[in-house]
Amino acid sequence: MNYVNIFAEIVSIMHQDYAGYEEKKGWDNPDYFTEKIERLETSELMTPQLFAEIVNEYLVSFQDRHMYFHLHNSEKVEVKTCGFFVRNYEDTLYVTEVYEENRFGKGARIVSVDGQSISSIRKQQRAMLRESHPEREEWDEILNKAKYFELINENEDVVKLELNLYRRTPKKSTYDIRSINEDTLLVTLSDFGDTDRIVNLIEKHKDDLLASKNVIVDVRHNSGGNAHAGNSLVRYFYKKGEKPSSELKVREFNCSDRNVELFLKSAEKVRSSTDDEDTLKMLEFGENQFKTYRNQGFVAFDFIGLLLCKCRRGICGD
Length: 318
Fold this sequence. Notes:
With about 325 residues, this protein is of the alpha+beta class.
């Protein structure tokens, strides 16, 4: 399969299987990218790395911060990173996390990139940031393609640095509950990937959670996973017998044939990795719904029975 055909399949997914394909119809311009790929293939300049970059540029059109393209198991694609994370506040990029980069630490302030102010970049590259709210903008792609930047370090010196790219190192999951003062617990969940580990951690600290006046749940950098991993934490946010007061929102699912098959495969994989009762019940519910409504377009799944069952078992508050 050549790159043009692979890209055509990606476009098909975005136009038929993507959850936002109806509301975002016409946002993309696949012909532009198809022609670009054809030119590169004809001139024998196309590489897996370049193809991945082109596809991600195409996906930016949909302004969906949860959607990226990666080539798995390809020795010719080396994922690199600038080695740190930033957050925009008042047109200054504050370094919030440092990983592979070691020339500066948390708190450093980036005031320009490639000679351009942060406010100027925001105006010109708004689509690449995938977000309209400044503090939720994603600067990774812009920084990874930059040549240099200026920052203010801890000594209040303005320093011009060449931007280095590093081989991305796998990040270890962080699941932690600790006291930050006599009244407050800090719960840090870097992802919801290991349901059993998170459930066991919460069970281990149940007395602390019950005794604490305040609980801060830090999911700022949470990369996702099985949201049911955090269900056992929810009960500590409600008094005994109390239930959430917000109305249940209707959630529609695109039951295309491809989505049904993908869900069934994913469900089988998750089922083999956990014994969590809530997760297993949700998997069974999802499988039945997707099988029932296969190829029927967007369907609102009925979660009421499932949620009532959880409340009866004490998930809504002990």
